[in-house]
Design goal:
The protein has about 450 residues and is mainly alpha-helical. It is built from 20 helices and two strands. The radius of gyration is 21 Å and the shape is globular. About 55% of the residues are buried.
Length: about 450
């Protein structure tokens, strides 16, 4: 018999005699709070895209340093995936969600208040490391609060919520910055993410059994949490499965391309190529984010319906490579045609959400947190590499043009940087062609 301290700790769910699953509204409410945190994390992830001039001016930096400032989020987001994968299986989702919300708010406050570039990077690092828990918490709660057949759909819906956050960080954020200044807006965003933590403290539970209901989690997950040592060994074990490392490297091409573009370099590229105002450039990126957001749950649901992962996943990757190439390298491409191709490319990129269900089905189910964290590292190595390296390429191709102290880059410089995106997507397509189909069921 567990004592009260064990129950309150949240490390082990309380066993219930109930044969009833939780009501749908309760499951959606718990999962929705986690999705709201992921939305806030995605907002912070891409927000530098519409304040590039302000940040360059505030910290007196060029494209390379700006790329690194933005990428500090990703550096620590990636670094936290392995610890988060361990903690989500040992601490539980609730504690991670609360701790992540509070620390993300602290990081955002530091970023918005400092005039020192190094401290700004520290603030972005804290935000990145804190919001790293968001995606794994979403997947963990989905496993416990929903039937397994909804996992791919919920993964897509989670990414949809994230993209709503990214959408908020485009035109609405740009307008807010113009009216109130970038620092004031960052302070408000810090308060919002802390408020999400308060909701998690009040309402989120790790498992339905803690509310007296039956759990949807597999028996091996319900039996208890593995030790930290067992989970660390799990990282080695999951790479013994071929799909793990193929999907790991493929994810970065899809996620890296769209986040490098909409999250940092898209708006200034559109200003350079089409002389768009900042709000209109942000609107084009918003269209892309909407298409990515809408297509993610559709890809997940369609994959569940046909009972296969690979065809949709591989086709999306190939078409995304073709789309980005057309957007950047077709000479004289009209703006309308660019937006249409960009929208279609973003929809194809929504297939990336299948990587989580695909990899989860490729390893033993007790390694849910481990494989989810590993796949998410694959996601984030894309923007972590591409954002600063594209900035470095821009600086290498800078012609010396300045506007009120802000570096101005021509279209050729952006095209040279964006070659990296297209190249990675080609490699991703090749890797995915070698994956083994799971037919939407646990194959390990």
């Amino acid at each position: 018999m567990r004592n009260e301290a064990e129950v309150l700790s949240g490390l082990t769910p309380v066993r219930s005699e109930s044969n009833a699953y939780p009501p749908s509204w309760r499951s959606w409410f718990v999962w929705g709070i986690a999705a709201l945190f992921y939305l806030a994390g995605f907002y912070h992830r891409v927000s530098p895209a519409v304040m590039t001039d302000e940040l360059m001016s505030a910290f007196n930096i060029g494209a390379g340093s700006l790329g690194n400032l933005s990428a500090f989020y990703f550096y620590f987001y990636v670094a936290m995936q392995i610890p988060t994968g361990i903690l989500v299986d040992s601490w539980g989702a609730r504690k991670l969600l609360i701790a992540g919300s509070i620390s993300a708010g602290v990081g955002a406050f530091l970023f918005g208040s400092t005039h020192d570039f190094a401290l700004a990077c520290v603030g972005r690092a804290i935000i990145g490391g804190s919001t790293a828990v968001g995606w794994l918490v979403i997947l963990k709660l989905a496993t416990h609060w929903f039937p397994a057949k909804r996992f791919a759909m919920l993964s897509g819906l989670g990414l949809f919520f994230g993209n709503i956050g990214a959408l908020t960080a485009q035109v609405p954020l740009r307008i807010a910055i113009q009216h109130f200044g970038w620092r004031a807006v960052v302070f408000v965003s810090a308060g919002v993410v802390v408020a999400v933590g308060a909701l998690a403290f009040a309402f989120v539970k790790n498992d339905p059994v803690e509310d007296g209901f039956k759990s949807y989690a597999p028996l091996e997950v319900q039996r208890g949490h593995m030790s930290v040592l067992e989970l660390l060994k799990g990282f080695k074990k999951i790479f013994a499965y071929r799909n793990t490392w193929l999907i790991f490297f493929a994810q970065g091409g899809l996620v890296g391309s769209i986040l490098a573009f909409t999250g940092l370099w898209g708006a200034p590229f559109l200003r350079a190529r089409y002389q768009l105002l900042p709000t209109k450039a942000a609107a084009v990126c918003s269209v892309m984010i909407v298409c990515w957001a809408v297509s993610s749950p559709i890809c997940g649901a369609l994959s569940d319906r046909i009972g296969r992962r690979k065809p949709i996943y591989l086709a999306g990757c190939i078409l995304a490579a073709v789309g980005w190439s057309a957007m950047f390298f077709i000479p004289g491409l009209p703006l309308t045609a660019f937006v249409i191709i960009a929208a279609l490319t973003s929809m194809c990129s929504g297939a990336v959400v299948l990587g989580f269900a695909y990899s989860k089905e490729s390893v033993p189910s007790q390694y849910l947190g481990t494989i989810s964290g590993t796949t998410n590292i694959g996601n984030m190595i894309g923007p972590t590499f591409l954002q600063p390296v594209i900035g470095w390429v821009l600086d290498r191709n800078w012609t010396g043009q300045l506007n009120h102290g802000v570096h101005i880059y021509d279209v050729h410089a952006y095209q040279m940087g964006f070659l990296l995106m297209v190249g990675w997507l080609v490699v991703s397509s090749v890797l995915l062609s070698f994956t083994g189909e799971t037919y939407c069921r646990q194959s390990a």
